[in-house]
């Protein structure tokens, strides 16, 4: 099992942070590894929406489809994928901590199977590093 939780404080109102972070079209701007996001269902984002992502992680090209499992705008977004060797759940939370500051968390949980299971501890370490970098990037973008 891989379970990586990271968080950051962004000096912007919660609504602005969550609106930006929950928009799949913005993902390639702040996720270093995501190269492309494509809507498979009509906008706007809602439970049941499907978004295809193309990414690069650990030197490999990855293509996967996330389904929005839970969405409470401004508070919570949960996405899940069940395809591939590494089913993953990604959760964002946003919490106002001051009028102009938001605590954002990013959590990735998954259960690698087969050959991928051997590398789970290494993958968790690399995910934590990537997630921290991505959160610093979204903070930089939004605090400009």
UniProtKB/TrEMBL annotation:
Top-rank taxon, per record: Bacteria
Name of the molecule in the record: ATPase
């Amino acid at each position: 099992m891989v379970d990586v939780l990271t968080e950051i404080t962004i000096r912007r109102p919660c609504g602005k942070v969550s609106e930006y972070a929950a928009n799949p079209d913005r993902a390639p701007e702040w996720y270093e590894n995501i190269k492309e996001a494509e809507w498979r269902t009509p906008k706007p984002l809602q439970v049941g929406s499907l978004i295809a992502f193309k990414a690069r992680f650990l030197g490999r090209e990855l293509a996967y489809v996330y389904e929005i499992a839970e969405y409470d705008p401004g508070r919570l977004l949960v996405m899940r994928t069940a395809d591939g060797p590494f089913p993953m759940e990604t959760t964002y939370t946003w919490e106002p901590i001051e009028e102009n500051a938001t605590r954002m968390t990013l959590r990735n949980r998954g259960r690698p199977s087969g050959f991928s299971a051997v590398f789970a501890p290494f993958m968790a370490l690399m995910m934590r590093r990537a997630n921290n970098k991505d959160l610093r990037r979204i903070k930089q973008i939004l605090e400009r």
